[in-house]
Design brief:
two-stranded parallel ribbon, globular, 2 domains, 4 helices, two-stranded antiparallel ribbon, Arc Repressor Mutant, subunit A
Length: 142
Amino acid sequence: MVAPPYYPVPPQAYGGTEAVVAGLVDRLVSRGHHVTLFAAGPRGTTAQEFVRTSERTLSARLGEAIPEVVNAARVLGLLRSRPQGITAIDALAAVGSFRLAARIWELRHDGYVIKSKPETTASGKTIDRYVLEEQLTLDVAS
């Protein structure tokens, strides 16, 4: 389970998405599922595994454009460094990107050709692997 980095899971006050994630994690664990939670801040659920994506939550930066631009640049760098492509888990682990599909959309919108290739995991789930096919080239007139 992947939670946004803005509020703790569960949240102390505001944090609708984080509250839903906390409820899902705890309910899945109570039903016998093994859950790994990727989240920022302190551990706060019954998930068997907790992967801290950041020591502190980022609520103060919610809505700022700069973190999104920096994250898109990191995703682009990751795509360039991995010709075999990347998955959402790769992006989360390598550059802390929680919203890979949004970053891919932005890069495509900026002219990058990125193909998505479905693949099946060992557990039988279908996920997308994104591959940078062409890098943006600028036609500069002299």
